[in-house]
Amino acid sequence: MSSISIRSLSKRYDSTPVLQDLDLDVESGCFFGLLGPSGCGKTTLLRLIAGLIEPDAGDILFDGQSVVDVPPERRRIGMVFQQHVLFPHMTVEENIAFGLRMRGTGLKAALPAVNDVLELVQLSGYNKRFPRQLSGGQQQRVALARAVVIDPVLLLLDEPLSNLDAKLRDDMRELLRSVQQRLGVTTICVTHDQTEAIELSDRMAVLFSDGIAQTGAPAELYERPANVQVAEFLGSTNLIPGTLVGTDHAESPIGRLRIREMAAAQCADGDAVQLNIRCEHIGMHPAGDEHQSQAWVRLPENHAFAEVVSSVYRGGFILYLVRSGSQTLRVIERSDRQFVPGARVVLRIPAEHVGVLPGPNGA
Amino acid sequence: MNKARRRQLSIFLGLAPALSVLTVLFVGPLALALIQSLGYAPIFGVREFPTLRFYTAVLGSTRFRLAFWYTMLYALVPTVLSTIFGTWLAVAARARMRGVRFLSFFVRLPLVVPYLVGAALVVALFANGGLVARVLFAVGIIQNTGDFPRILFSAGGWGIMLVYLFKQVPFTFVVVSSVLAGIGPELQEAARTLGASPWRAFRHVVLPRIFPGIVTSSLLVFAFNFQSYEIPLLLGPGFPGTLPVEALRRFQLPTIARRPEAMAYVMIITTLSGGILFLYLRAYRRWERSRGGV
Ligand SMILES: Nc1ncnc2c1ncn2[C@@H]1O[C@H](COP(=O)(O)OP(=O)(O)O)[C@@H](O)[C@H]1O
Ligand SMILES: [Mg+2]
Known about the structure:
CATH class of the largest domain in chain A: Alpha Beta
Structural class of chain A: alpha+beta
CATH superfamily of the largest domain in chain A: P-loop containing nucleotide triphosphate hydrolases
CATH architecture of the largest domain in chain A: 3-Layer(aba) Sandwich
Strand content of chain B: under 5%
Distance between the termini of chain A: 39 Å
Bound molecules: adenosine-5'-diphosphate, magnesium ion
Oligomer: heterodimer
CATH topology of chain B: MetI-like fold
Strand order of the largest sheet of chain A: 6-7-8-3-9-10
Low-confidence stretches of chain A: none
Number of domains of chain A: 2
Number of helices of chain A: 9
Largest sheet of chain B: 2 strands, antiparallel
Shape of chain A: elongated
Helix content of chain B: over 70%
Largest interface: A-B, 28 and 19 residues
């Protein structure tokens, strides 16, 4: 397996730039998730790495060696494409053996290796089937087997789960992870699905059409997004306009909030910022009787009154829309305690979950 | 009437117009030709039905045997060459390169030109006083336009085969292109990442997928070449003609009583080309089944 470095990579189709000046580093043996909306250039990047298309500028290095002049058949890459592209006129066995045969191994001699990877993807005994005799999930696993049997230095996965239904998706996700760990192969997996990226990756990056917005461990990106775009792309969140007061508080439509410690000099006193509060980090409690009658009761710091506007049941969880002052917030709560629309509640917003993002509009 | 019968009947009625056209245009004339070749042809004053006299006359002649082999030659060589070149161009036209769109327009162009115009073109270019001869003369490669090798009207059949190629490379190109369009570049790319060179990706992945299209187009091309008479008549040698040319000549025999030989020719041509196509298709189906029947 190899470490991958991408240096100032640019690619345009006709006159539309797709990737501009892209830099990326993937450590050897890492499962790297590349998350981005549809059309941001994920597939293009994989095709560049695989050598199926040529970059306009920049360099791609495997273990420090430039590969831009190496044709795809000599890059030793295993690639699983977005659409199933098993060879329809070949059996499962012939499909998987293809890469070995292209390297000079006969079909007979390739069989032990073929059977090994078939077992790895839990399809032992499917040797003689044709792709059309397999379900979508099975085809996907054969595609994975076909990609890893050549012992690639790099595994590229293009939205490997997007064509599968929910149950298969979970199985395939586990399978992908276990296969990758067993083989220890450096893997780049692109997806538009944040759950997929977060659950699979050791490290991940978020790619937008203007480039990579942030790179880091999944938890890091989720908990401490670098900007509003990343925050919004990685799951539902609340972005509230605020003004910094000193370095540890912010004034907002729901009152003054203590905020999480900022990275040094990220923003300064008086700056207009966006406060990022994940829906599941807001606690919601019924407002007691004393709150109903005695409006003057002071709430502790980082608490706010609110009224439930609506709720959506989400299987085990409920997504509430609540209004606090002029601000509407989304709150996710366990469904064992339910609030009806119109109920008065108290919100608790832990300071360590109030992130600060630069810019009044996140710009 | 039960449901299944009624469905059969409605399918039959739905096909009736097409079937009647087929009967009138195909079965009818063929039956007529068969009867005449077997000796019932009052218009020629022949009333010997049934007799195989005309068949033995045809099949026993050297002329027939020569005509058969030349027909095979003129049909087969352009079929093989146009299949190779048409497929090659269709694959090349898929590359994302400048000039490809022009290429595929240019290749299609002869499709709209009639065969006869193709023949005229070949004559203008390759006749002894033709353009090519004159250019070669002008640059001094030949001393006399008459020294230009005799390409047309010779048993080599170069002229015939050139016209066929002129029309049939584009035909194969169009058929194979449309099959290629249906399979997209993804399979090829998958093969490349798995270690196949461009040629091997084509050989192992693309070719098997487009093979049915190639078989179909080569079949049509061969059948046409085997049966058509106008180009061999125009550009072929006086002797021997191809089978269809010989058939035509039998129609024009001064001895009217021998004219049923023409019909014997027609029946033989039909049987031969039908038989060849059948054997070809059967061989292909066998191969296909051995590949798992995709
Ligand atoms: N072969 C191509 N020719 C022209 N434009 C293309 C081509 N392939 C992709 N694009 C464009 O490039 C952009 C990025 O495509 P792609 O890499 O497939 O995105 P993603 O995989 O992230 O959805 C899209 O706007 C797409 O329309
Ligand atoms: Mg894509």
